[in-house]
């Protein structure tokens, strides 16, 4: 009797310990604990191509930088771009510049649809990625990493080329002129 | 012969179509700019006198503007380059960037202008003086500050470039996109008084 009871107690203790572990380190750690999330290696999304990723060097004293790029979705599924991250900046957002009644304003875009087999272009006076809080000074010729986060938490990695303020714009313009 | 005439007509139409692709409005009557006193990036005084004896392209913006302002300034420089092929050097317009967010712009303006490495004058100053010029060009801006501690705010502002003649009068407005080639052709015609395409 005593023997059985000892085993039963051990089993109970183990169950309680597992329950405590599940509560303290279980699902809550996946989303709410940002430091734990950062340590997890993100899954790289396949079937996507980033080209033309450029950022005009911000003027001294300006703590934000715009990134322009073309994102091709080579898969057969529409995806949503929900966040942007870069180790070189404190934070990033997707922004849209729009003109209403002759006024230019910027608004955040919560999620951006990249349709299956289509390319979304982020270019001046339209969509751009706005990165804030550079961790060091950037000049033309530098590069920094960028991660585009999809709604399934998969990441699309890109390398952004820092260019002179006018360069990206005029090339973009040339592309537009050819269309 | 008929073919040649048709070709010339078609060529004329295509050039016309290009000129029309500029979102420009020519004022029926030129409007004089009011007196104002602002300061350039190098600290010199900039008044209505600096708008005289040359053509001016005036653009309103702010130094923390990440998208529209660098795009417009770079394009206006490209317009100037295109224009240099079309007009004599004394007709080449100066580009003036009116920075409407003096709390952040005043300190940065000199470095901001230098950073672009292109030819334009940055001006800013007292809010009341900025507002005089903004009203004068029928422009608008609004600081989108969420609160007194918000330092990363956006500024909603007029997108148009104001064209000012050598008498200090507003003669036209151009809205984006500022395609360098088309805008230069449009301005060259405008400065010659050939506004038939408008």
Describe the structure.
The complex is a heterodimer of chains A (179) and B (198). Chain A has 4 helices and 10 strands, in the order αααββββββββββα. In chain A, strands 1, 2, 3, 4, 5, 6, 7, 8, 9 and 10 form a 10-stranded mixed sheet that branches. In chain A, β9 and β10 form a beta hairpin. Chain A is an alpha+beta fold and 179 residues long. Chain A folds into 2 domains: 2-39; 48-178, PCu(A)C copper chaperone (Immunoglobulin-like, Sandwich), CATH 2.60.40.1890. Chain B has a single domain (2-191), classed as Glutaredoxin (3-Layer(aba) Sandwich). In chain B, α2 crosses α5 (180-191). Chain B contains 5 helices and 10 strands. Chain B is globular. With 198 residues, chain B is of the alpha+beta class. An 8-stranded mixed sheet of chain B has the order 1-10-9-4-5-6-2-3. β5 of chain A pairs antiparallel with β8 (154-158) of chain B.
Give a short overview.
The complex is a heterodimer of chains A (about 180) and B (about 200). In chain A, strands 1, 2, 3, 4, 5, 6, 7, 8, 9 and 10 form a ten-stranded mixed sheet that branches.
List keywords for this structure.
heterodimer; A: 179 residues; alpha+beta; Immunoglobulin-like; 2 domains; 10-stranded mixed β-sheet; globular; disordered C terminus; B: 198 residues; Glutaredoxin; two-stranded antiparallel sheet; 5 helices; 27% strand; disordered N terminus
């Amino acid at each position: 009797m005593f023997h059985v009871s000892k085993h039963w107690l051990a089993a109970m203790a183990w169950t309680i310990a597992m329950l405590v572990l599940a509560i303290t380190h279980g699902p809550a750690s996946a989303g709410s604990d940002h430091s734990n999330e950062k340590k997890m290696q993100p899954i790289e999304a396949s079937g996507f191509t980033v080209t033309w990723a450029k950022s005009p060097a911000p003027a001294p004293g300006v703590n934000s930088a715009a990134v322009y790029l073309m994102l091709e979705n080579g898969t057969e599924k529409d995806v949503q771009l929900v966040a942007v991250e870069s180790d070189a900046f404190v934070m990033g957002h997707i922004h849209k510049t729009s003109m209403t009644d002759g006024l230019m304003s910027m608004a955040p875009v919560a999620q951006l649809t990249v349709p299956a087999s289509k390319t979304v272009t982020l270019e001046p006076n339209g969509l751009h990625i706005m990165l804030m809080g550079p961790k060091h000074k950037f000049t033309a010729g530098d590069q920094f990493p960028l991660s585009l986060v999809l709604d399934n938490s998969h990441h699309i990695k890109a390398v952004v080329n820092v260019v002179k303020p006018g360069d990206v714009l005029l090339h973009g313009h040339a592309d537009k002129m050819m269309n | 012969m008929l073919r040649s005439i048709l070709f010339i007509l078609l060529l004329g139409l295509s050039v016309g179509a290009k000129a029309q692709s500029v979102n420009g409005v020519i004022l029926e009557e030129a409007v004089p700019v009011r007196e104002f006193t602002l300061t350039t990036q190098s600290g010199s005084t900039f008044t209505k006198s600096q708008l005289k004896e040359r053509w001016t392209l005036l653009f309103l913006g702010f130094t923390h503007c990440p998208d529209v302002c660098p795009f417009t300034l770079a394009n206006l420089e490209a317009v100037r380059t295109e224009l240099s092929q079309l007009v004599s050097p004394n007709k080449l317009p100066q580009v003036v960037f009116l920075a409407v967010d003096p709390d952040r712009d005043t300190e940065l303006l000199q470095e901001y202008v230098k950073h672009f490495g292109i030819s334009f004058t940055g001006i800013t100053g007292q809010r009341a003086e900025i507002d005089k010029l903004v009203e004068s060009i029928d422009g608008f801006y609004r600081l989108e500050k969420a609160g007194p501690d918000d330092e990363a705010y956006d500024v909603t502002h007029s997108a148009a470039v104001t064209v000012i003649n050598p008498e200090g009068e507003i003669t036209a407005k151009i809205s984006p996109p500022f395609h360098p080639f088309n805008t230069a052709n449009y301005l060259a015609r405008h400065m010659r008084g050939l506004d038939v395409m408008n």
